[in-house]
Amino acid sequence: QVQLVESGGGLVQAGDSLRLSCAASGRTFSSYAMGWFRQASGKEREFVAATTWRGGSTYSADYADSVKGRFSISRGVWNTVSLQMNSLKPEDTAVYYCAASNTILTMRSANYWGQGTQVTVSS
């Protein structure tokens, strides 16, 4: 059974940092695109960042414009993906979801989703 489990959410102040982690199990994800989406209360889920396999041990990274320069995504060993979030803003408040796809990662193409972790940024 495939599972994606997020961790690292919490309550922080504006300007602080948080690191989210996602551990995937149940299959090998080394060739999968993995990344993060978020959903704020009353809003649609949106793309945050993704890593895409480019062959061998190479992955490319893509970011939403709203987080470029502040967030950094990375792939670890053993089916993990992390999101380092710096200079957090109140508008970053949302439930953050880890996702994986065997193609390019989009909301429609995602094969697997985590249960989500809450990030709250106070002003």
Question: How many strands in all?
Answer: 11
Order of helices and strands: EEEEEEEEEEE
Poorly predicted regions: none
Largest sheet: 7 strands, mixed
- Helical residue percent? under 10%
Count up the helices.
0
Give the overall shape. Answer: globular
Structural class: mainly beta
General description of the model:
The structure is a single chain. This protein has 123 residues and is mainly β. Helix content is 0%, strand content 55%. It contains no helices and 11 strands. The strands form 2 sheets. Strands 2, 4, 5, 6, 9, 10 and 11 form a 7-stranded mixed beta sheet that branches. Strand 4 and strand 5 form a beta hairpin. It is globular and about 40 Å long. It starts with a strand and ends with a strand. 34% of the residues are buried. The model has no long low-confidence stretch (mean pLDDT 96).
Summarize this structure as a short list of keywords or feature phrases.
mainly beta, single chain, 7-stranded mixed β-sheet, 4-stranded antiparallel β-sheet, globular, 123 residues
